[in-house]
Design brief:
single chain, Glutaredoxin, Glycosyltransferase, 4 domains, four-stranded mixed β-sheet, Thioredoxin-like_sf, 6hp_glycosidase-like_sf, 6-hairpin_glycosidase_sf, Spermatogenesis-associated protein 20-like TRX domain-containing protein
């Protein structure tokens, strides 16, 4: 079987194409030089391993000998994994948005040898169909235009470049005041689906930062409708097919408004961002329902997405054996056979029918209360719970013997950092040491494998780490170091967070436009130096940097960090108020800044009811550090946050706000009166 240059790559997505008849290259100097030397246009194809339409286009076009031969003769063909190179993806997605009004993957772009785009689209069928040009005929037309009308192509490329440069300069500076949050909350609430929760109609994505913002705003404004909407969203998601009812973890999005039929891939970042919402919901309501979903999700990641070295894998495909969802769905007859007499209870609770709820199969989902099922069968609720639990375990055992969806086992620093945060928050509300251990092990793994000198790298696979870290890698990692530090204040976490914070300011900051670039000043030069400003399926590097620097300022009192946070927030606050959907994470940061963080230090954890009551309280605008022993405190006394505090022989709590601190507090009532 023939192979191309991708055989030397580590990305599972690129390796999927290593045996195509297309003579693919990775994005590297060799490929870019070849385009210039031979004066050939570049065909750039960007996707990722769990992307369904990427597989379809590969199968139809890139495995087709005739199409491949034409591509090889007329273009230099480059494949990029968007998860490894978010900078390249960001630039050309923006071009696609400019040209077609939408983006997506696979992204198909034709470039001049100096990387300027002149034709762009997403998925193309191999033959002309439904009024859409086929990939074969597009290649022929563009190859011909390249030879016969080079001026037209140059003009088109320059127009794209001008438009692209304009998109990078956004900023209407505004004052940071409470009205920003009021306007954003009302605008976001209007996008909400009052029946099923979530925002907009189908397809529906679990927008974690937006749910967090509604919770924060409810606390700030005292308006319970915002909390109720957030809780409804989380409840509907947890009961729908987007949540894997027996295996735990969330699928990527729902294809319908009801959260029933998911797009079945499972991404690490969703299973890192969403549990934080359930931790918040548990703190707000104390309802164990939310804690249960949090635990099932974190346990899924521990069981199925954790590498032996302690890093976390990137994603599972939507399809197995070439069929989307096959791994996750059930026939009723199959369930009856496995569960016997208990199947009636299980099928009633999880809405399993003979006809199925999707393409003749059943996606497990839940619309009934346990009490209804108990009443129906004349047994106790406790008994129903027991039966459902043992049935789920039996089905999970059977399911684990099916052919599993493909796993993308590369390890990305930014997504791993989000997961570390989720485990830290999970440990805080469950007190389960497995979660804290998973977070600490992953931090050590990154320290040992993903640094090159003082620089952070992006991606790791097969014992190889490569590609310089992006803004999101640094900012998410600083943030998760602080999340773990709050629970276990080992000075090394704070030291590393401060060091990386300074590195960001020195190498990524754009002082002209008051925001961070996506790439450092010594990163490979592309046609522009991109910025990431929107919080979409992942929070933007700028939003997370603003939050991380605000926290670093409060711990260290280094003014520089506060100035940078303020500049980012001021340059984007107006856009966030008008378009809150794309700025959820930034709005959470603005909210903390305006409320002024409450600094809570718990010294000596022997009074566990007191510690627990603080950790289980919903205090979104706080920095809570738990000091377990005198050594920790003396090692931290050089930092302003801890200065002047002494270790006592009983649990004492200091609450500081607006540069004034309480005396040591010793009871729950005393603490509450200061909060």
């Amino acid at each position: 079987m023939a192979e191309n240059n991708l055989i030397h790559e580590t990305s599972p997505y690129l390796l999927q194409h290593a045996h195509n008849p297309v003579d693919w290259y990775g994005w590297n100097s060799e490929a870019l030089k070849k385009a210039k030397d031979e004066n050939k246009p570049i065909f750039l194809s960007i996707g990722y391993s769990s992307c369904h339409w990427c597989h379809v286009m590969a199968h139809e076009s890139f495995e087709n000998e005739e199409v491949a031969q034409f591509m090889n003769e007329n273009f230099v063909n480059i494949k990029v994994d968007r998860e490894e190179r978010p900078d390249i993806d960001d630039i050309y997605q923006k071009v696609c948005q400019i040209a077609t009004g939408q983006g997506g993957w696979p992204l198909s772009i034709f470039l001049t040898p100096d990387q300027k785009p002149f034709y762009v689209g997403t998925y193309f069928p191999v033959l002309d169909s439904y009024g859409r040009p086929g990939f074969g005929s597009i290649c022929r037309q563009l190859a011909q235009a390249w030879k016969e009308k080079p001026h037209d192509i140059e003009k088109s490329a320059n127009n794209f470049l001008d438009a692209l440069n304009k998109t990078e300069k956004i900023s209407t500076p505004s004052k940071l005041e409470r009205t920003i949050l009021d306007e954003a909350a009302m605008n976001l609430f209007q996008l909400g689906d009052s029946t099923y929760g979530g925002f907009g109609s189908a397809p529906k994505f679990p927008n974690a930062a937006n749910v967090s913002f509604l919770f924060r705003y409810a606390k700030l404004s005292g308006l319970s409708k915002f909390t109720e909407f957030g809780l409804k969203t989380l409840k509907k998601m947890a009961n729908g097919g987007i949540f894997d009812q027996i295996g735990g973890g969330f699928h990527r999005y729902s294809t319908d408004a009801k959260w029933l039929v998911p797009h079945f891939e499972k991404m690490l970042y969703d299973n890192a961002l969403i549990p934080v919402n359930y931790a918040e919901a548990f703190q707000i309501t104390k309802d164990p329902f939310y804690l249960d979903i949090l635990k099932k999700t974190l346990d899924f990641v521990l069981r199925e997405m954790t590498s032996p070295e302690g890093g976390f894998y990137s994603a599972y495909d939507a399809d197995s054996e070439g069929v989307e969802g096959k791994f996750y769905v059930w026939k009723k007859s199959e369930i009856k056979e496995i569960l016997g007499d208990d199947s009636d209870i299980f099928c009633l609770y999880y809405d399993v029918t003979d006809g199925g709820n999707w393409e003749g199969n059943n996606i497990l989902c839940n619309n009934l209360n346990i009490s209804t099922v108990a009443f129906n069968f004349g047994i106790t609720e406790e008994k129903v719970r027991e039966i459902l639990q043992s049935c789920s375990k039996k089905l999970l055992d059977v399911r684990s013997k099916r052919i599993a969806p493909g796993l993308d086992d590369k390890i990305l620093v930014s997504w791993n950092a989000l997961m570390i945060t989720a485990f830290a928050k999970g440990c805080r509300v469950t007190n389960d040491s497995r979660y804290l251990n998973a977070a600490k092990t992953c931090i050590s793994f990154i320290e040992d494998n993903l640094f090159s000198g003082d620089k952070l790298l992006r991606t790791y696979k097969n014992k190889t780490a490569k590609i310089d870290g992006y803004l999101e890698d640094y900012s998410y990692f600083v943030n998760c170091l602080l999340d773990v530090f709050e629970i276990e204040p080992d000075p090394k976490y704070l030291k590393l967070a401060l060091k990386l914070g300074h590195h960001l300011v020195d190498h990524f900051w754009d002082s002209e436009n008051n925001s961070f670039f996506m790439t450092s000043d010594n990163h490979e030069k592309l046609i522009i130096r991109p910025k990431s400003n929107y919080d979409l399926s992942l929070p933007s590097g700028n939003s997370v940097s603003a939050f991380a620097m605000l926290r670093l300022f409060h711990l260290s009192q280094e003014k520089k960090f506060l100035e940078i946070t303020e500049k980012i927030m001021e340059s984007q606050a107006q856009m966030a108020a008008e378009n809150p959907f794309g700025f959820g994470y930034l709005l959470n940061t603005i909210s903390i800044y305006l409320e002024k963080p409450i600094e809570i230090t718990i010294i000596n954890t022997e009074n566990s009811p007191l510690c627990k009551s603080i950790l289980l309280e919903y205090l979104p605008n706080s920095i809570v550090v738990t000091i377990q022993n005198p050594d920790q405190l003396s090692a931290l006394s050089q930092y302003p946050f801890f200065a002047g505090k002494s270790f006592e022989d009983k649990t004492s709590v200091f609450v500081c706000k607006n540069f004034t601190c309480s005396l040591p507090l010793h009871t729950i009532d005393e603490v509450n009166s200061h909060l």
